[in-house]
Amino acid sequence: MSIMKPDRVFMDADLEDTPEIRYLLSKLGKSPEIIEDSKPVYDLVNSQKDPISFAKKILYITQNRGAVIRECPGTSHYTCCDYTILHSGTFCTLDCSYCILQAYFHPPVLQYFAGLDKLNTALDQAFSRQKIMRIGTGEYTDSLIWEPVSMMPKFLVEKFAAQNKAVLELKTKTVNINSLLDLDHNGKTILAWSVNTPEIIGSEEKGTAALKARLETAKKAAEKGYKIAFHFDPIILYEGCETEYEKVIRSIFSHVDPSNIVWISIGTFRFMPQLKSVIEARFPKSIIPYGEFILGLDNKMRYFKPLRIAIYQRLAALFKQIAPDVMVYFCMEDEEVWEKTFGFFPKKEGELGHLLDKAAVKRCGLNKSILS
Amino acid sequence: MNEIDILKIPVSAIDMADTGFRITGTDKNIENLVNSVLENGLLVPPLVLANNNSYTIVSGFKRVEAVRQLGWETISCRVLSKREQNDPAILEKAARMAVSESAFTRELEPGELIRAVALLERYLNHKEIAKNSIALFNCDLNSGYLKTLSRLHKMPKQAIDLIDTGHLSIKATKTLLAMDKRSINSFLGLFSHIKVSSGKQIEIINWAKEICARDGIDIPQLLNDTLKALGLLQTDHPSLSVHKDLAARGNQLRTHLLKKRYPALEAARKKAAEHLNRLKLGPGIKMSLPASFESSVYSMQIDFKSVEEFKSRMKKLVSLQENPDLKGLLDR
According to the model, what pLDDT value does residue A2 have? Predict the structure, then answer.
């Protein structure tokens, strides 16, 4: 499995010598190249023939100079879950063919945003609001690729454990939870795994843990009292995939009791049109761009709607049969898809978010009285 | 002798086999030019390079051929002196002149552009050509594009022939570059059977490539099967009488591949079109389906010139609510 072992480490000159930095550098085992600004890193990555592959081997330790906590951008025309992003780093050492980060950053740079103090302040502000929040670090990076080298995951788990208004979701395709297992998490951290069929993991998710390993790790985490989530995203359509995804569902519930699962999201493969040429160039054997895609209303490519609905209906039926109490939801789908799959649609603004907040309150012991 | 002199030289002294400077296509039909020369004389003397005992055409291949066909014994030419045998400086100059003479008279055809670059790169690198492109081509060409043109020149001769005849665009041919020889040859064979716009050529290439990747078959097999299925494989196939129009053949082939590439979407489109036809909306009423059926919103537009027309079309619209085909369209 891919581990955090960069060939070169760059670090901003103005970063203070903190325990966080010392821990990170000691774990990386590399002396950083000190730079005055980000330009040398961007220039170096940009000058490469394959900047994306190259960027996975270059780590840039810097500060987040923008907002630490921000709303998930979502997209127009499709229902968003009103997630909150904790911006802790960018890009990823794993190499999934479908990864949107390949086309999202220009160029992609593997950045670690140091500064637990800043994080602490931002979270204190967030926790001071009378609002249930679902906060995750897995939007612009894999949350736990950093776990073997960084104090941040441990810091976050302990920070969230000390309050009852928000849950932290650490989303990953790794099995990097060793430093978290024995922490006093107080049920406020959800360890979440993106899952896929073994065939897709084998062909499209280079450097990630096998499905079996992910589920074994989820089981271990659940045994330590962590709440768990799963994300079937992206679901890739191929011949026989329905049965294979059903097997994944059965396998999940043979490892983790439904009562420990906060939510499960499902979403078929969708991508910015420009990602197609990136996949073709970097993963010439991949056939995932050649599904029956149409241009969605948000200008992303999506499978033709009846194909999406067909797979969703199969999976939803099985979820209903095995774990009727687990909150299953769509990431970015519209009313027709919701209605035809689940028989209802969270129509009102913020309604899906509210349903997920409720699930978080119920499973993670958040303050019910502030649930709007 | 000056660097360029206008001289009357024997037509028989011109080496017609030496086409080293030729950038125009080998269009056999020069009847119009022959008639023009007969009627008006040779207006612009061809440019030739003097060898020891013969002349090499630099520019004006068709004019010389026209004169030959007219049986002229001598022809006025602009003669570029050859200072020494194979003097690279004079050869480079001739190459530049061969390109500029055509490029400053008219826009070069795609095949001419490819051959012009191939001719110039015997003496200049891409950067030098790019730097001088305004003077050479009467337009700005960057070195990346020049490299592409150079690569296209290395493709099988059939590719350039198809570019010359408008069966293939530069853009479409470029998409073939990364393919293996067999696949390239299969596509060249296919495009010799059809004639469609550049956009459609690219769609055909991409869809075929994607179908093959998805289904694990090779491109020659898919194209061969497609041509066979459509009766386009043998030129003497009886069904060709129905498909003589190259554009019609192209559209037929494109539709065939589209159905293979997007089977569910195309089936839905077909079904919707059938419902729509059966609705018999009549003149002045137009129904628009959501693009790719992603949205659930359908729209109806009516045109009218009078209250009477408005009433009658509204009546037709209202009557549609009971029509099972409207339900068929909406209950998808």
Answer: 59
Which CA distances in Å does B189 have to A84, A164, B161, B194? Answer: 55, 69, 12, 9
Q: How confident is the model at residue B86 (pLDDT cuts 50, 70, 90)?
A: confident
Name the closest residue on chain A to residue B265, using Cα atoms. A304
Contacts of A296 in chain B (CB under 8 A): 294
pLDDT, tens digit (0-9, with 9 covering 90-100), for A113-162: 999 999 999 999 999 999 999 999 998 999 999 999 999 999 999 999 99
A287 touches chain B (CB under 8 A): yes
Tokens read off for B82: 């050859």
A305 reaches B (C-beta below 8 A): yes
Is the per-residue pLDDT at A343 higher than 50?
yes
Q: How far apart are the CA of A287 and the nearest CA of chain B, in angstroms?
A: 6
Amino acid B269: pLDDT: 96
Q: How far apart are CA B111 and CA B160, in angstroms?
A: 6
Q: Which residues of B244-258 are buried (b: 16+ CB within 10 A; e: fewer)?
A: eebeebbebbbebbb
CB pairs under 8 A between A and B: 42
Looking at residue A50, the DSSP 8-state letter turns out to be S
CB contact under 8 A, A304 and B264: yes
Q: Within 10 A of A101 (CB to CB), how many other CB atoms are there? A: 20
ipTM of the complex: 0.89
β-strand A133-136 against A166-172: which pairing, if any? parallel
Tell me which of A79, A270, A285, A287 to substitute to probe the interface with B (most B C-beta atoms closer than 10 Å): A287
**What pLDDT score does B235 carry?**
53
Q: How far apart are CA B222 and CA A52, in angstroms?
A: 34
Q: Which residues of A touch B264 (CB under 8 A)?
A: 292, 304, 306-307
Specify the pLDDT at position B238.
45
pTM above 0.95, yes or no: no
Put simply, the answer to whether A305 touches B294 (Cβ < 8 Å) is yes
CA–CA gap between residue A150 and residue A6 (Å, rounded): 14
SS3 label, residue A358: helix
State residue B146's pLDDT score: 96
Q: How far apart are CA A356 and CA A244, in angstroms?
A: 27
- Nearest CB neighbour to B214, from listed A77, A287, A336: A287
Distance CA A102, CA A275 (A): 7
CB-nearest to A290 from B210, B295, B296 is: B210
DSSP-derived letter for residue B212 is H
Q: How confident is the model at residue B25 (pLDDT cuts 50, 70, 90)?
A: confident
Closest chain A C-alpha to B210 CA, distance in angstroms: 6
> Which residues of B lie inside 8 Å of A (Cβ-Cβ)?
210-211, 213-214, 262-265, 268, 291-296, 332
Backbone angles phi, psi at A47, to 5 degrees: -80, -5
Residue A334: list chain B partners with CB under 8 A. 296
pLDDT digits (tens, 9 = 90+) for A278-324: 999 999 999 999 999 999 999 999 999 999 999 999 999 999 999 99
pLDDT of the residue at B242: 45
Q: From CA B95, how far away is CA B121, in angstroms rounded?
A: 9
Task: Report which DSSP code applies to B238.
Answer: G
Dihedral sign for Cα atoms in the order A94, A100, A104, A106: positive
The token duo for A221 is 């985490």
Integer Cα distance of B161 and B26 in angstroms? 9
- Distance, first Cα to last Cα, chain A: 42
